[in-house]
């Protein structure tokens, strides 16, 4: 499988910080989602494309490690690295602040038939093709 790495810039908005002026821990999940949507957009196979193909990929597992806090108005870079495609999509994430890794995570998404709820063990052909054709 082709190695794919994408990067997404996120500026921390005021409403994401807690009373201690650091990013509330739950918002990191949101940053992963923003970066994952951008990852699929860059592949040219989005969640809308999956839905149109009768497929959904819900998160089945998520592992996270907080290393250092980020604060309001700082710029983060969220790196997504495709690790596996079948039988599940596994993406590794690194979040950087000023080139320093402050957070890391992994997600596993399981393919599901949108209409029947049946688990899919093979990636859709359009997704495989999008990965093969990806140029960064």
Describe this structure in words.
The protein has a single domain, classed as Thiol Ester Dehydrase, Chain A (Roll), CATH 3.10.129.10. The chain has three helices and seven strands, in the order βααββββββα. β4 and β5 form a beta hairpin. The radius of gyration is 16 Å and the shape is elongated. It starts with a strand and ends with a helix. The mean pLDDT is 96.
**CATH homologous superfamily, by name?**
Hotdog Thioesterase
Which architecture would the CATH scheme give at its second level?
Answer: Roll
Specify the helix fraction band.
Answer: 10-25%
- Count of helix runs: 3
Shape: elongated
The computed structural class is: alpha+beta
Number of strands: 7
Question: What is the count of distinct domains?
Answer: 1
| Overall pLDDT | 96
Q: How would you spell out the order of helices and strands?
A: EHHEEEEEEH
Distance between the termini: 15 Å
């Amino acid at each position: 499988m082709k190695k794919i790495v994408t990067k997404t810039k996120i500026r921390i908005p005021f409403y994401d910080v807690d009373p201690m002026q650091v990013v509330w821990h739950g918002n990191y999940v949101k940053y992963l989602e923003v970066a994952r949507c951008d990852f699929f957009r860059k592949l040219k196979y989005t969640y809308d494309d999956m839905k149109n193909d009768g497929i959904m990929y819900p998160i089945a597992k998520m592992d996270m490690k907080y290393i250092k806090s980020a604060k309001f108005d700082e710029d983060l870079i969220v790196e997504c690295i495709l690790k596996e495609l079948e039988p599940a999509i596994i993406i590794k994430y690194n979040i950087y602040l000023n080139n320093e890794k402050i957070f890391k995570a992994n997600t596993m998404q399981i393919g599901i038939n949108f209409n029947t709820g049946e688990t899919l063990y093979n990636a859709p052909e359009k997704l495989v093709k999008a990965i093969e054709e990806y140029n960064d």
